[in-house]
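Long-time lurker, first post. I've been practising inverse folding by hand and with some scripts of my own, and I keep getting stuck on stretches where the C-alpha cells seem ambiguous. Below is the full C-alpha cell string for one chain I'm working on. Before anyone asks, I'm not after the true native sequence, just a reasonable design that respects the backbone. If someone could post their per-position residues I'd love to compare against what I wrote down in my notebook.
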C-alpha cells in the first residue's frame, strides 16, 4: 500500500505519519513548458459555517431550492420563456475556434477561424453545441453550471466534456481550509437522494481558481471531474444566487400568478359579477300560501333552491345558448302581471380590463429582474400590449449581447483548460459567434461577430 496518497491541489496524505502534506506547484504540468513560478500562497476561500457538517452541503433549507425555483417557473408565462430566450441569445450561433491575428484601430480583435482536425474531432465527440447551450442554460437559470471532464485511461488527455443538469447537482460539505468542495453528488431524486445511495453518483471537483492543469495531472480521485462555474453573487459562499430570484422573494411573482387564477374563477362564475338578480317578495307568498307561517330556515332553503335552479341555467360558459323561462304571476291588486325575477346587468369588469394595470406592473418587475427588454422576447401582458419597433429591437438586442460577454467567457474557461491540458496550440482561442442586428441600410440584416 502506498504511503503517500495525493488528493489534488498540491495536497497529499501520508499514511504512516498520519500527516497532511501541502506541496503547491511541486509537480508541474507534465510535458508543459517550464518557466512559470508557483504562487507563494493559495487563493483565500471563505467557508460558510453551515456547510461544514455532514457529507452534503444542502442547497436551500430543505435541499430543494432548484426544485422550488422550477416549480415557480412552471406557473409563470414570462420567467421560463424569457430565460430560454436569454439562453438562445447568448448561445448565438455556437462556439468556434481560431486565432487572434491582430487588432483593429478601435481595439477590437481580428479573429480568424482555423481548421484543426484534432480540435474538430474533440468538438464532434463532445457534441459541443449541446455543451454550449446547456452550460449557458445553467448559468441563466441558476447562476451555477456543472461541466464534467472525462480523461483518457492513461490520464494524458481530456477526451470529452459535457454539462450536468444543475438541479441534479449538490456539493459535498466544504471543510475549513478547503479551497473548494471535494465532491459533487449527482442525482435526479433530490431532496430525497442521499450520498452513497444507488441512484447518486459522486464526482470529484476541481478548484477553478488555482492552477487547474497541474491539479488535474496530479489528482488521482478518478477519471472524470466537475469544473464548477458560477456567476458571482455577493454574500453567497457556495451556491450562487441568480439575480432574477429577487422577483420570487419580493412577492411580485405571486402577484403575477394570482391575477390569471382570479380571472379564471371570474370566467367560471361570471353570473356572480355580471348580474344583479331580484326576486319579488309577492312571488313567494303567491307560490307558498303558508309563507308567512314558515320558519326563517325554511324560507332560506326555498329561496336557495329556487336560485340554484336559476343559476344552473345562467351561469358559466355552458349556459350559452340556453332558453330562460320568464316567470310572471298575477297582481293580487288587479294590476299588470308581476315579473318574478328581475335580472340587471352590471359593468362587465372582464371586458373593461379588470386588473390589467396590476398585470402590467407585475410583468414590468419580472422583466426588470430578468434584465431583458420586453420588446425582445415578445409583448408585455396588459391592455396596451405591443412588441416595440424594429429599431427598438435592434438596439436592445445588440445591447443585450454586449452585456453578456462574461457569461460566454466563463463557459469558455472549460475549453481553455482542455487546450492547455491536451497540449493544443496555445495560440488557439475559443469564441461564441454573436449575431448583431443591423439597420436596414446595410446589405445584410445581421452581422456575425466573435467578441466574447
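-- Answer (accepted) --
I ran through it position by position. Result:
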Amino acid at each position: 500500500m502506498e504511503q503517500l496518497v495525493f488528493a489534488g491541489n498540491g495536497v497529499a496524505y501520508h499514511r504512516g505519519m498520519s500527516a497532511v502534506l501541502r506541496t503547491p506547484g511541486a509537480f508541474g504540468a507534465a510535458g508543459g513548458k517550464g518557466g512559470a513560478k508557483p504562487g507563494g500562497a493559495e487563493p483565500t476561500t471563505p467557508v460558510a459555517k453551515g456547510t461544514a457538517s455532514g457529507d452534503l452541503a444542502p442547497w436551500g433549507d430543505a435541499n430543494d431550492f432548484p426544485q422550488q425555483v422550477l416549480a415557480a417557473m412552471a406557473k409563470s408565462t414570462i420567467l421560463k420563456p424569457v430565460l430560454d430566450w436569454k439562453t438562445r441569445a447568448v448561445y448565438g450561433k455556437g462556439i468556434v475556434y481560431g486565432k487572434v491575428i491582430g487588432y483593429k484601430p478601435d481595439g477590437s480583435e481580428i479573429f480568424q477561424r482555423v481548421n484543426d482536425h484534432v480540435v474538430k474531432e474533440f468538438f464532434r465527440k463532445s457534441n459541443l453545441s449541446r455543451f454550449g447551450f446547456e452550460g449557458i442554460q445553467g448559468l441563466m437559470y441558476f447562476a451555477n453550471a456543472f461541466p464534467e471532464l472525462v480523461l483518457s485511461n492513461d490520464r494524458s488527455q481530456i477526451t470529452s466534456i459535457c454539462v450536468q443538469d444543475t438541479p441534479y447537482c449538490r456539493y459535498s460539505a466544504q471543510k475549513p481550509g478547503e479551497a473548494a468542495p471535494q465532491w459533487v453528488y449527482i442525482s435526479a431524486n433530490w431532496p430525497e437522494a442521499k450520498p452513497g445511495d444507488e441512484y447518486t453518483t459522486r464526482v470529484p471537483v476541481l478548484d477553478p481558481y488555482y492552477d487547474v492543469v497541474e491539479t488535474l495531472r496530479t489528482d488521482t480521485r478518478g477519471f472524470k471531474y466537475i469544473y464548477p462555474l458560477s456567476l458571482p453573487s455577493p454574500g453567497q459562499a457556495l451556491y450562487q444566487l441568480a439575480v432574477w430570484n429577487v422577483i420570487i422573494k419580493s412577492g411580485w411573482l405571486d402577484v403575477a400568478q394570482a391575477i390569471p387564477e382570479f380571472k379564471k374563477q371570474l370566467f367560471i362564475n361570471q353570473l356572480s359579477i355580471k348580474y344583479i338578480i331580484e326576486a319579488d317578495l309577492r312571488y313567494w307568498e303567491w307560490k307558498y300560501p303558508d309563507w308567512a307561517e314558515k320558519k326563517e330556515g325554511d324560507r332560506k332553503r326555498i329561496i336557495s333552491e329556487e336560485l340554484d335552479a336559476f343559476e344552473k341555467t345562467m351561469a358559466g360558459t355552458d349556459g350559452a345558448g340556453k332558453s330562460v323561462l320568464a316567470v310572471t304571476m298575477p297582481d293580487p291588486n288587479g294590476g299588470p302581471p308581476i315579473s318574478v325575477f328581475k335580472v340587471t346587468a352590471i359593468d362587465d369588469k372582464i371586458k373593461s380590463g379588470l386588473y390589467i394595470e396590476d398585470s402590467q406592473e407585475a410583468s414590468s418587475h419580472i422583466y426588470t429582474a430578468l434584465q431583458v427588454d420586453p420588446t425582445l422576447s415578445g409583448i408585455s401582458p396588459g391592455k396596451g400590449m405591443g412588441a416595440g419597433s424594429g429599431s427598438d429591437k435592434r438596439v436592445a438586442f445588440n445591447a443585450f449581447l454586449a452585456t453578456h460577454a462574461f457569461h460566454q467567457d466563463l463557459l469558455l474557461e472549460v475549453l481553455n483548460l482542455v487546450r492547455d491540458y491536451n497540449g493544443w496550440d496555445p495560440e488557439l482561442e475559443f469564441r461564441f459567434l454573436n449575431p448583431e442586428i443591423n439597420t436596414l441600410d446595410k446589405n445584410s440584416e445581421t452581422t456575425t461577430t466573435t467578441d466574447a
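A couple of notes from the structure itself: The CA atoms of residues 169 and 186 lie 5 Å apart. The chain has 14 helices and 19 strands. Happy to go over any region you disagree with.
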